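ok trying this again, last paste got cut off
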Amino acid sequence: MPRFVVHKHAARSLHYDLRLELDGVLRSWAVPKGLPEVSGVKRLAVAVDDHPLDYIGFEGTIPEGEYGAGTVEIWDKGSYDLTSLTDKTITLTFYGEHLKGSYRLIRTKDKNWLIFKAKS
């Protein structure tokens, strides 16, 4: 099963980074308000550069002056099942400590996506 990680990232502003193991990289989104854990809540997720797979276990401090400077810690991790993947939608099921169940990412414009938990 492919893996995922959610990094809690205290950079210029606190946000969360969702990273999905897909096609040999970690596809990544910055989620300013954190990932929803209940259905009915939609959150902005902004696509960012892919990260190498070995970044999945990263925790630590990125030094000032470097891209993403600040403290990074793992907020959640686990595996996921990919149900569907297109240029505009991703449907998956998370098996993590915090994120459990079916989620959907929908591209709204350019790098902007919405992420929400599907109703059970």
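PB: full thing came through this time. The chain has one domain: 3-117.
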